[in-house]
Amino acid sequence: MRIRTLLPVVLAALGALLLVVSVFAGAGSAKAAAGKAGAFKKGGTLKIAISEGDFSNVDPGIAYEVTPWSMMWATQVLLVNYPEKTGTEGSKLYPEGAEAFPTISKDGKTYVFKVRKGLRFSDGTPVTAAAYKRALERNLSPEMGSPLGVNVQLHKLIVGGEAFLDGKTKVLSGVAAKGQVLTVKLTKADPTFVSIMAMQWFGAVKPDTPYTDKGLTIYPSAGPYYIKAHDVGRSLVLARNPYYKGSRPANPDQIVFTANTDQAQTFLQVKNGDFDYDAGAGSPPTEYEGLGATYGINKSRFFVGPITCVFYVAMNTSRAPFSNLNVRKGFEWAIDRPALLRLGGKYAGKRTDQILVPGVPGFKDFRLYAIKGADPAKAKQIAGNVSGTVLVRHSTSIANTNRAQILEYNLKQMGFATKDLPVPGGVYYPQLQVKGVDFDTAFAGWCADYNDPFDFINVLLDGRTIQENNNVNFAYYDNAGLNKQMDAAAAQFGDARAAAYSKLDFDIMTKHAPWAPWYIPNQRMFVSARVKNFIFSSYYTEPAYNAMAIAG
Amino acid sequence: MLQFLIRRLLWAVFLFLAATLITYVIFYVVPADPAKQMCGRACTQEDVARVAHHLGLDRPVYEQYGRYLWQLVGHQSLGTSYTTRQEVNHIIAQTAPVTASLVFGGAFFWLLLSIPVGILSALRARSIGDRAAMVFVLVGVSAHPVWIGLILSYFLGYRLHVTPIAGYCDFFNPSLGSDCGGPVQWAYHMILPWMTFMLLFAALYVRLIRANVMETMTEDYVRTARAKGASEHRVLSQHVLRNSMLPIVTILGMDIGLALGGAIFTESVFSLPGLGRQVLQSYSNFDLPVILGVVVFSTICIIIFNLVVDVLYAVLDPRIRLE
């Protein structure tokens, strides 16, 4: 080909490419201008992105993560549930599927729920007690593969649970369903049982719902929405349940989740209105300050709310130096909580120095230690002369690496030498769960499975649960007196329970101090311009999707 | 030819076994426990053991690998994801077309750009155009695809609204609830991913084509053709281009085979639900069956494309015998 004819051909090709681009640019949908502020109405499609993540599973007998649970909150009817309200009001259970809270026998072992009449699944089938019995069975059935009920020891709590889990029987003998009446017999009195029933594992499912270790991707639901379509790894669509006549909101016509998006790109797409909210990794942390300055906090598009979690530094009480109570108490004064919190970015959370968090029954803000900043002089005074090297274990994330440096500085102010031990995030907790793992301090965090102080204190600090592996008592603290006190608190109900745990929280931190709690994290949420009626749940750590409305 | 094919197939089997075995071994060196992850946080050791037994993880590594191979060869099954519990075959079937559309589309555009630019550059060596092309090569090779993608999507997508910021539309069957689908929307959403993906390869191919053309132009047969009075057009089309493109065919096959394994960076930036993004997610969840499935698929792709390239090479160049 002659050179002279080649150049025009190249230019023509480039021109053609530009023409193609402009055609598609025209074909692209115009970006909607921000909707007018004002009252919202029902309707429209709510578009939620899940950046850097997905629903690992949406079967209520298998799902065990925040993302599917917050979605299932819109689809499930639980016997008792959390209302779509913000703040501490949103942490108070109310009877949803049940007409009232259960009747409990005098010995505390038999719970009777009367299921509300008139509830229907999205295919029109009425909801009866058998629906809740089936949920319990699916939660403990060995045919489901990794049954989840064992996480809350349901197999030991419900009569016949162990035999059912081991496959010795096909029937969960401790659960009876007759008409609208559900009766559950426990092996021992357990005041956490009602809170446990508020977990998403126990929503009503049709009695003929099969056992499957694959997990169901679509199934009828009795809540305000049901799963209409699910393309695993790509998208999930909720549509309004036509048979739902309850009082919970159902504002959008449908809610579409798009999974596995990029965090930074999703942020731009929320700004642009392509998505309404990112339920995955959320906005990049560097954006929070700007969002707060632009939109204010909890006013229009940027919302901040505490979640039912606590982050702490676990002290290895099984060996020196933190086997010494005075050293542990001294450390509570040495740790610079504000400096640690600043590394989380703007609006990261609230400093704390105790175990329980707001919204959990029994929480009282005690202000026991150095909340406003480190007090190394007091730390030294309480701890006395200290020496030796403290091994600071932390994950290799940037934030935790920087936090470890602060901690090491604080420890040096006490008089210790320090040694840094970074551990890759993927194996950080698996290693920490092994008894005898090498560390003196370790960063850790815990979020509630259910809103009861038992799930914080007993689960995390009962020394009798320490085993060779798979531990969650990261302080490896075992004190017989404290264990008894925990048992006593666990046996209480209602206000007495709250008071007992409040005292326990105080006593643990003042007389035992196995941890240095340092902050209660916030969820920082950014929505598109058209979203109204944003209600955040501190338990689910996400907004109520069924309540979110689209301005129009 | 038959002997050649048989030899290559046997070699392919060996490569396949080596790749899957290495992946298996590496996975087991990593101190993570999928059974513990699936069981939950407060499980007892007994419960974790129960889960491990259900997943078959309590068996020796060699036995697990053997069962995996048997499943693959005997039942054509890549297993089940630990995380989502979906069949890995289904996951690969869903994600592979997305990666294929990125890679093949990108390959088309990078060839469309690199061939004329590379040839022009070679024919007008050291001209302004040639120097501009080399600057383009430098930028294309130096700039990370993630950076390129983010810059393009920010300016073209977010600021100017010329293209979507990110996302993918199905060509044939859009997902329910998706507001996009069909060939036009599919192509519209792929513009930026193609541009991002192709830039690095286009830069490399420009340089490669330029070098090949320049080298071929100095061959004896080209000088002879000119001496015999052949027109410049004939010299280029019949002698130079055909011979200089042969190495491109080889490298193209290899690049496509490798890229099919997962164009991770581009898929991540543009939220394309392809193999690359899938393997990233699976790695963070220690989802071995999916990781292995992608490795198997990539290995097969590389083997097939290399085979196709070898055969094509023999077709293009009659001097080459497949012996």
Q: How is this structure best described in words?
A:
The complex is a heterodimer of chains A (552) and B (323). With 552 residues, chain A is α+β, with helices and mostly antiparallel strands. Chain A has helices at residues 3-27, 66-72, 129-140, 154-157, 161-165, 193-196, 263-272, 288-295, 325-334, 337-342, 376-383, 398-414, 425-432, 457-461, 480-490, 494-512, and strands at 40-41, 45-51, 80-81, 94-95, 103-104, 110-114, 175-178, 181-185, 225-231, 235-240, 254-261, 277-278, 302-306, 309-315, 349-351, 389-395, 417-423, 441-447, 515-526, 531-532, 536-537, 542-543, 549-551. In chain A, the strands form six sheets. In chain A, strands 13, 14, 15, 16, 17, 18 and 19 form a seven-stranded mixed sheet that branches. In chain A, strands 9-10-11-2-12 form a five-stranded mixed sheet, with helices on one face. Chain A has a four-stranded antiparallel sheet with strand order 5-6-8-7, covered by helices on one side. In chain A, a hairpin with a 4-residue loop joins strand 21 (536-537) and strand 22 (542-543). The longest helix of chain A is centred in the first third of the chain and has 25 residues, at 3-27. The relative contact order of chain A is 0.15. Chain B is an all-alpha fold and 323 residues long. Chain B has two domains: 2-75, no CATH class; 94-165 and 196-321, MetI-like fold (Orthogonal Bundle), CATH 1.10.3720.10. Chain B is 75% helix and 0% strand. Chain B contains 14 helices and no strands. The mean pLDDT of chain B is 83. At the A-B interface, helix 1, strand 9, strand 10, strand 11 and helix 7 of A face helix 2, helix 3, helix 5, helix 7 and helix 8 of B.
